[in-house]
Amino acid sequence: MTRNSKSIVAALLFLVAVVATTFAQERTLTIEQCLALGLERDPGLHATRMEAERASGGLKEARVNLFPKLSVSGTYRRLSNEGASTISVPPGNSVTLGEPILNNYSLQTDLEYPVFNGFRVQATLAALQKQTEAAKAQVAHKKAATTLDIVTAFWKAVEADRRIAVIEKNLELVEAHLQHVTELRARGVATQEDVLQTRMRLSETQLMRIEALSSRDLAHYRLALAIGVPDMEEITLQPEFEKSSVPKGDLTALIARALGNRNDLFAAQRRIEAAVELQRQAEAAYYPQIIVTGNYSLARPNSRIFPPDDSWDDSWAVGITARIGLSDIAAAPAKTAQARAREAEARDQATQLEDGIRLSVTRAYYNVQTAVKSLDVAETMIAQATESLKVTEEKFKNGIAKSTDVLSAQLSLLNAEMEYTNRRIDRELAVAALAMATGETDELYR
After folding, report:
1. CATH code of 273's domain
2. What does the angle CA 30 – CA 33 – CA 34 come to, to the nearest 5 degrees?
3. Which whole-number Å values give the CA distances from 126 to 50, 133, 342, 357, in the listed order?
4. Which of 12, 52, 231, 342 is the most exposed place for a label (fewest CB within 10 A)?
5. What is the structure's pLDDT at 15?
6. Is residue 147 part of a domain?
7. pLDDT (0 to 100) of residue 187
């Protein structure tokens, strides 16, 4: 490769790196894209999924106890040579039992099957099944909560962007007005007080801009954290107002849907059922366990055959065992009391959660109503501020109003426009909160 070729390749690699870095650091995002990123990368949601997988794995492991336990073992032993074994027989004779077999081999299969266990295994499996269902429901609830967090962070960032835009427009108006007032002062039309008041308004607006920039940076960083891209230096947002779907129905219908939809309530109900099954598990100590056992052995020599022979011989055994733990019976009342307390606690928690759901739905419902009505009023404010500005400008032309009156009217119009934007954002946040309260966040941006 020539020197010029190497230079061209290096330049191309550098250009690709710059483009890739720019793409990675700067991005334009819609709320749907933010939701896709955040739900994929949220560590809290991933941790909840892992908890559900762990619960599911524990259930699968416990199901093994329903089947016979089968084991296979093999053994080899080398014995020390102690010589041939003899026994004495009257009158003064001895009999040799055989030469020692120094190499011992054995293969054995053991079977154990609890034909009756006092319903321990069934109760344990039922409890684990309910706990697994609760864990899976918590994943869905965590997804809904994460969705609300992302939506809130998105619209708060949009609100911060719009506030900056209004303040910068205010700043332009004040600067233009200061220049105009200064010219009028030079011609003797405006007073020094008009100039000083305008300069003070300019300083106030500059301070507002500094604070708003800081708030915007913080809002954007919160959004970047929520969607899992904290290293992204610049996020340009593309909001679409009134795209979210408002949950349908009156307050009574919404509360009824919430009590049927909410995954956290479903999880609480499954935990109650799991506590009931744990009581059955504790009470199983009063019943005996009946176990069928068996084994098959192939050994050289086989210890169950006399006299020992250095050859492979098989043997088998079958038995039944009944066992009851006296210490388990003594501990059963305490374990049962614990399980009942756990059930009572779970029921109380479920009742509190139901009350909280009713309250959150009611609050979110009225917040949506307020946001919609406020949006209409804010739209009216824009029309009023626009008309007021026209009147003030006409008065200023006729020498009736001061230049500061015109500036105030202009700022009032900008503030009205900002208020309208804020009310639109309030509507989006209220709808998202209502969707979360009713358990319908999956329908929010469909």
Report:
1. 1.20.1600.10
2. 85
3. 21, 11, 16, 28
4. 231
5. 44
6. yes
7. 82
